[in-house]
Amino acid sequence: MTTLDEDLEDAAAGSDQRHPGLRRARAWLSRSVEPGTVDLWRYVDHLGPVVAVQRLRSGAAPDALRSLVGARAQQDATLADFQRAERCGARLVIPEDDEWPFLQLHALTLAVADEPADRRNQSDRTKAPVPPLALWVRGPGRLDELADRSVAVVGSRASTAYGEHVAAELGHQLGERGWTVVSGGAFGIDAAAHRGALAAEAPTVAVLSCGVDRPYPAAHGALFHRIAETGLLVSEWPPGSAPLRHRFLVRNRLIAALTRGTVVVEAAARSGALATARRAQDLGRSVLVVPGPVTSAMSVGCHELLRDEQLGARLVASAAHVIDAVGSIGADLADPAPRPESVRDGLSDLATRVLDACPVRIGVSPERLAAVAGCDVLEVLRVLPALELADLVQWTGTGWRVTPPPKEPRSGRRPGVAS
To answer: Per the database record, which ranges form the Smf/DprA SLOG domain (predicted)?
Structure first.
């Protein structure tokens, strides 16, 4: 079995974009370097992953970059990572693969180009719009295909029953319409959105802050197993990696970048979902917000997003609203909100005026109706039969009145007598 350095040397000598050394180089980077660093991504993009890894391991890379690797420079766990991935049915997807979601992640490539050259002025690593160097993926779906028509649904972990109901409904309705729901697999809104999509027998994608073989939270082991059966578990970190706190903030940019828009269902004033919404806005993606009760602390963040005029967030209340915002122009339009139908809806202006002129209790003559409605008696006589057929007015024997509502059936008990 060849060593990493031998594979790298062999890959550097050839031009095969599918050489095992290339994949092994990106696997090494995924474990040795925390993602989100602008300078390191630029270094790998400029030299290529094979040469970049060779220089990082040999000490030929700039000191600032070697310090990011530290003691990991001489370590190599790539073969063990591939074995762990094989055991759980995962694979490494790299930019050289056909499955790589080029179109979606191109927004990160454009955004990182605007980062200044001076490291001191660059965005913090947890917020920097840096494209991933590789992605560990577990599940049968193709990453590029599932990301093509996808929407992120995010929100608070400490969600309310209202928020979980809305998230599940959105997940289910989006799944029914052929859209992929992307979220972070956390408690609360994330889990509700995933379960809603699964209930519609639609694939869903969970972007994790740990290895795809390590369910976190542990209580979601069964949920992640179901997601991996039809959808995808995605992570920048190799199998076995722990869910460290800073990694949750780093992965938010992926949730925003892989999708056409981000829906925030519930978010407190300091919710991590707000960070995902900001990342989506920075990448030119739609930011969609579900409003909540003004008395709910779990919706304070949502309302602040809607109040931010520069953010340009849109209020949504259904999957149809979401698709209308992120779908194709002219192909994914939302239907108008249904409104209760009434027999009055089809009445002409004259018929409406005559009906409004009819008293509730006593019947009056057509002449009286004409005087109140402001029209001729002949016009009243012309519309009264149609109103009677619609069961809106009735003849009392002495005049016309509004048809009274049907009486409720009597209970058969005398008032005040308990059963």
So the answer is: 127-325
